[in-house]
Design brief:
This protein is an alpha+beta fold. It has helices at residues 2-24, 27-42, 64-75, 90-97, 101-111, 117-124, 131-142, 149-158, 167-172, 180-183, 189-193, 211-237, 245-255, 364-369, and strands spanning 258-262, 267-272, 275-289, 296-300, 319-326, 332-334, 341-346, 351-353, 359-360, 379-380, 415-422, 425-432, 435-440, 446-451, 465-470, 476-479, 483-484, 489-498, 501-508. It starts with a helix and ends in an 11-residue tail after the last strand.
Length: 519
């Protein structure tokens, strides 16, 4: 009887693992989510609500409670509106992104997680009769002509990220669970004895880089946890008066060998002298203190959370302000303790927060030294109104339905920004369906011209420059030539000139701190 129960729990763990991996492409997240889901089941307290927070799931047999727990755990890291990334099928990515979170969950629970239409509808708080409607809407974005439901299902099945999950992946994510022995029956002895869970996988490649690589990643995670525990104990045992936030930041500035503003970037497990270290290569925006490579810093993030950069709705992530010291290996690493990795949410003021969004006052001398904006900003025509202050009743434009993602529509539904710059000033117009309007921007917006590494045409000069509009916080809002859905704006009734052409003038409606870019 116990063996049967263990195998049932192993199967539920595997379902939760695949569910999380399909939506995150992270073996580490999938391991953590599956562990939490099964621990809740073992504790006799499975999730009592469906993944959308709606109807109770008490007493429902099968996998629904476990998948509901997995969904709730995953939401702490990934916003529900973020569509899963599918490799090599951009039209399918567009189609999934065009759905509301509930519609997408209904579709994927059926086609990827194997639930019936009724189960998926109950879990996603949708109507079961909505499934064929959602399937047909997605199919229209995938196929130039009407296609069968079977053809659409085949495309979805072929794009299922869990196809890359191996039995070995599932074994390595279960060593600390009570049923691990049952889950590993039939695997080699060395596979059963490897400790720990997998690290983040590269989204461009399937998980499963061999047992040795997994063992090294596991050691890095265990070592990181130990480092964090030791740091917490050291801080707890050293009595001192708590400084103000600005004083603490000033202390970090004094202690740091290097203080830099960097572009946020990925972390990668790397073998260094026989040990796995979590390294991050960050492009430098500004060196505020110290000497190091001026373009790219290699940072040792071992022992720190690899999820310090939370997923947000901002496609263009803000820069980070780092307080770094050199470790015994000569690598730069953030100073131990809170506050050594900050997010620079406003480049103009500047203003900073912790990675979780809590404001952090900066000492005056540091604020004065920060120069993260482009050197030569260009003036834009502005309305004098702050972002988000336009009268909602006056705003017009083609908008996606409520709950739909406006950034992932098919190409034929997108317009294009075009711009011109001369004598320290810039202007931008928007073209859509053979119509063009001149944009007037919110107060605080500006522009600059950056070098482009891409050539869009045979006649493009090698030193081609791209006009980029900056929002009121100094971060890129949109690039010249960028396709996007038709803008939401307020016609002013005026006319203006840009690039030698005359246009209607519209005040564009944008939310505070927003961006249309993703890189």
């Amino acid at each position: 009887m116990q063996a049967t129960e263990d195998r049932v729990r192993a199967a539920l763990h595997d379902d939760a693992y695949r569910y999380a991996y399909r939506r995150s492409l992270s073996t580490r997240l999938a391991s953590e989510v599956a562990l939490e889901a099964v621990e809740a089941l073992d504790a006799g307290s499975p999730a009592t609500r469906d993944p959308s927070g709606g109807i109770p799931l008490d007493g429902i047999p099968g996998r629904l409670p476990v998948l509901a727990t997995a969904h709730a755990a995953l939401e702490r890291y990934l916003p529900p509106a973020l569509p899963p990334r599918v490799q090599g099928v951009p039209d399918l990515q567009y189609a999934l992104a065009s759905l509301s979170p509930g519609e997408r969950e209904l579709l994927l629970l059926c086609h990827w997680d194997g639930l019936s239409a009724g189960e998926a509808a109950r879990a996603s708080q949708q109507e079961a009769g909505l499934l064929p409607v959602v399937e047909a809407a997605c199919a229209r974005l995938l196929f130039p002509e009407p296609a069968s439901a079977e053809a659409f299902a085949a495309v979805l099945a072929a794009a299922d990220p869990a196809r890359a999950v191996t039995a070995e992946d599932l074994v390595f994510s279960t060593p600390d669970l009570p049923f691990a022995a049952a889950a590993t029956d039939g695997f080699p002895a060395d596979a059963r004895t490897l400790p720990g869970t997998s690290g983040d996988s590269d989204p461009a490649s399937p998980p499963g880089g061999g047992s040795a690589a997994r063992n090294r990643r596991s050691q890095a995670m265990v070592g990181g946890s130990c480092l964090l525990t030791l740091a917490a104990l050291a801080l707890a045992l050293v009595p001192r008066q708590a400084p103000s936030p600005a004083q603490e930041t000033a202390r970090l500035f004094a202690l740091a060998d290097v203080v830099a503003v960097v572009v946020q970037s990925r972390v990668e497990p790397t073998l260094v002298e026989g040990q796995i270290r979590i390294l991050r290569r960050a492009s430098v925006v500004q060196m505020v203190k110290g000497e190091a490579a001026r373009d790219v810093l290699t940072l040792d993030m071992t022992g720190r959370s690899t999820l310090e950069r939370p997923h947000t709705r901002d496609f263009f992530p803000p820069h980070q302000l780092l307080f770094l010291v050199r470790n015994a290996d000569g690598h730069l690493a953030p100073i131990e303790g809170d506050g050594s990795v900050l997010t620079l949410v406003d480049r103009r003021s500047p203003e900073a927060t912790t990675v979780t969004g809590d404001p952090v006052p900066l000492p005056d001398e540091l604020r004065e030294d920060l120069r993260a904006l482009p050197v030569e900003e260009l003036r834009l025509a502005t309305s004098g109104e702050a972002p988000g202050s336009l009268d909602p009743d006056a705003i017009i434009g083609i908008r996606p339905p409520p709950g739909r993602d406006a950034q992932n529509l098919p190409a034929h539904q997108l317009g294009t920004f075009q711009g011109s710059a001369q004598d320290g000033e810039a202007c931008v117009w928007f073209e859509f369906n053979s119509r063009a309007v001149l944009i007037r921007w919110p107060d605080g917006f500006s522009a600059y011209q950056r070098a482009s590494s891409l050539r869009t045409g045979v006649g493009d000069p090698p030193d081609r420059r791209v006009l980029t509009v900056l929002n009121e916080r100094g971060y890129p809002y949109v690039d010249e030539g960028r396709p996007t859905p038709f803008i939401r704006a307020v016609p002013t009734g005026e006319r203006g000139m840009c690039g030698g052409q005359e246009f209607e003038v519209w005040d564009i409606a944008v939310a505070p701190g927003s961006t249309l870019l993703y890189y």
